[in-house]
Amino acid sequence: MTVVAVVGLGGMGSRMARRFLDAGHELVVWNRTPEKMPALTGLGAVAAESPADAARRAEVVVTVVSDPDALRAVTKGTTGVAAGSGEATTVIEMSTVGVRAVSELASALPAGTALLDAPVLGSLAEAEAGALRIFVGGPDPLVARWTPLLSVLGTPLHVGPVGAGAAAKLVANSTLFAVLGALGEALALAEGQGLSRDAAFDILAATPLSAQAERRRRAIETGDYPARFPLALARKDADLISEAAGAARTDLRLGEAARSWLAEADEGGWGHGDYTAVLAWIMGRRP
């Protein structure tokens, strides 16, 4: 079994940590707000005093944080992961932070410390069930070495060298946001033309949006969007996609439109709700 440190115990990180613990691995945990640690230490995990302390205690350090600034905060400085890492350490970065932040992390780690970037596709239910899709960037031997560990969380897909995982996650999320935007606009257009809700969903059932329309119908009709992935984080991801497109000189017109809907809803005070509530925002159902 492996000694795994998980740095960041939010909705995703806490569930991923529990998966490692249930699989029989030794677990070390650290979180910026300590009150999230007892739920895991009560099951046998060890609480670290800092990210550096977590890294010193572990063979593998998994970072799961909200954004690039949070990643810098837990990896740099005298108490950061980099300060506690050595030649025997592998850092697996599993947040959605973009390629530039992964490159900064690689530069901050000591020589000899191994690094994979492995962001995940999926939400709380998938994290709990070990059904995440994991986009892994790194050298073949290192990916092969840690694939069994990552498989505790879901299905790893090796997509290229370090940084490729972060790039792949932005590609995947770009489709999620564009589809939500298209679905919301289609329903708004149906309402605007006087079509009934049932007719609108019957029409959508005959289109490429069929599966998404059916999946989101209950939430749309009840107005209940259970919080799984905060809209503010979706907006952050959309901003990272826009930044990556700009750096690559790629014209993402649909992506920018989807980003504008998320930005409006976030600035309208919906940031703490689920990202799928952007559908209600698009359809004009605002308080």
Task: Detail the topology: elements first, then pairings.
Blueprint (H helix, E strand, L loop, with lengths): L2 E5 L3 H12 L3 E5 L7 H4 L4 E2 L3 H7 L2 E4 L4 H8 L5 H4 L5 E4 L4 H11 L5 E4 L2 E2 L2 H6 L2 E6 L2 H11 L3 E7 L3 H29 L4 H8 L5 H13 L8 H17 L5 H18 L7 H5 L5
Parallel strand pairs: 1-2, 1-4, 2-3, 4-5, 5-6, 8-9
Antiparallel strand pairs: 7-8
Helix pairs in contact: 4-6, 9-10, 9-12, 9-13, 12-13
General description of the model:
- The protein folds into two domains: 3-160, Rossmann fold (3-Layer(aba) Sandwich); 168-282, Orthogonal Bundle (N-(1-d-carboxylethyl)-l-norvaline Dehydrogenase, domain 2).
- The chain is elongated and about 65 Å long.
- The chain is α/β, with parallel strands linked by helices and 287 residues long.
- The N and C termini lie far apart (51 Å).
- It contains 14 helices and nine strands.
